Description:
Layout lengths: L1 H10 L5 H6 L2 E2 L2 E2 L2 H23 L2 H21 L7 H24 L7 H5 L3 H9 L1
Antiparallel strand pairs: 1-2
Helix pairs in contact: 3-4, 4-5
Amino acid sequence: MFLYAYVDILNFFTPGVIEDILDGKVFEFALSQTFSTTALTLMAIPILMVVLSTTLPARANRIMNLVVASLYVPVTAFNAAGESWLYFYGLGIVLELILLALIVRYAWTWPRTAPSASTATSPDRETVRAQQQA
Length: 134
């Protein structure tokens, strides 16, 4: 989420970007309520995923992370289209794609079920053995 925001913020320092924005244009898109709503939605989803990752049950969390990260791969790759500052955007996009790949990998390999409550709260064997010997 921070990479998306910082790449966009740092892009304001690219020559001509502010002038284009003041003229009502972002990349090839005219500034409009539709554009701004779409941009807000694209930024809100990763922000919501931070909250949802801590509040959803494990199965729903796994599915949401797989779906959202997979959908953001083409969105992220699209950001390179037509950009003249390829080192800057290239680094941002590569970092974003690495993080998305890690999210997909971790979500794919998460356990399918949560550990049982008795396992999570029971003392380990060495603690019980030490108590028995004492």
